[in-house]
């Protein structure tokens, strides 16, 4: 089965799960002396949320990404697994 025939939502779920699991493992690896580099990363996004007050309803927007080496590796593994199945 070719990649273009596969469902894009399954790919998105695979990528997000790879990022989450990799990020968790990266945070845990920070505490191990020889695996500290897996936890190296950066955060970017909105530091304070943006609020839109429409008198009847208030909408708050906020988005923050925290990426480390392990989450990037997890995403790459997720894409590899997706292509294999």
Automatic annotation (TrEMBL):
<protein>
    <submittedName>
        <fullName>DUF4321 domain-containing protein</fullName>
    </submittedName>
</protein>
<keyword id="KW-1133">Transmembrane helix</keyword>
<keyword id="KW-0472">Membrane</keyword>
<feature type="transmembrane region" description="Helical">
    <location>
        <begin position="56"/>
        <end position="82"/>
    </location>
</feature>
<feature type="transmembrane region" description="Helical">
    <location>
        <begin position="7"/>
        <end position="26"/>
    </location>
</feature>
<dbReference type="Pfam" id="PF14209">
    <property type="entry name" value="DUF4321"/>
</dbReference>
<keyword id="KW-0812">Transmembrane</keyword>
<dbReference type="InterPro" id="IPR025470">
    <property type="entry name" value="DUF4321"/>
</dbReference>
